[in-house]
């Protein structure tokens, strides 16, 4: 489960500021957190404010290539099968993670696809208007590890309560 915070709507023109990931298992005990130095001079103050970081603070974050390499190693060490990218808003989160992996590493360990947690829940409940967000236990704080944890909790609840078949 992955969550991204950024300072604008698209990668390249704007920057991924931080992201978090959690391996979906019963313990939810393996997490990754990265803070990345901006790659562009452009930023939208309102978008950056969501992450609760100032522009000055982000300029001291780590080089994106270093963070993405560390994330690639974390994925390899924690995922003993093919890693599957899942997020609350995969259209947004995926484009940043995919772009950063290809731009800084040359490949994406998740391959070419991602899964949307909200769409999964809508299909599971057979209701396109249902939201899974009530299944989170961890508050949605816009710290990406908290948000990824809450989404992983929701996925585990779908497994337990609704019979969703997932391999842990």
TrEMBL record:
GO MF entry, a single one: exonuclease activity
Entry keyword annotation includes Hydrolase: yes
Keyword annotations: Exonuclease, Hydrolase, Nuclease
Lineage top rank: taxon: Bacteria
InterPro entries linked: RNaseH-like_sf, RNaseH_sf
Record-given protein name: Exonuclease
Species the sequence originates in: Chitinophaga nivalis
Lineage: Bacteria, Pseudomonadati, Bacteroidota, Chitinophagia, Chitinophagales
């Amino acid at each position: 489960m992955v969550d991204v915070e950024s300072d604008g709507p698209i990668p390249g023109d704007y920057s991924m500021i931080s992201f978090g990931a959690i391996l979906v298992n019963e313990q939810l005990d393996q997490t990754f957190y990265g803070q990345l130095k901006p790659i562009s001079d452009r930023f939208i103050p309102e978008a950056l404010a969501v992450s609760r970081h100032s522009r000055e603070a982000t300029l001291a974050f780590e080089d994106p290539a270093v963070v993405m390499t560390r994330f690639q190693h974390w994925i390899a060490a924690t995922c003993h099968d093919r890693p599957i990218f899942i997020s609350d808003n995969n259209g947004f989160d995926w484009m940043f993670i995919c772009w950063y992996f290809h731009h800084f590493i040359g490949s994406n360990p998740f391959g070419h696809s991602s899964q949307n947690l909200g769409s999964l829940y809508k299909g599971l409940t057979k209701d396109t208007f249902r939201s899974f967000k009530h299944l989170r236990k961890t508050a949605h704080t816009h710290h990406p590890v908290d948000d990824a944890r809450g989404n992983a909790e929701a996925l585990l609840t779908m497994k337990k309560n609704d019979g969703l078949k997932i391999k842990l």
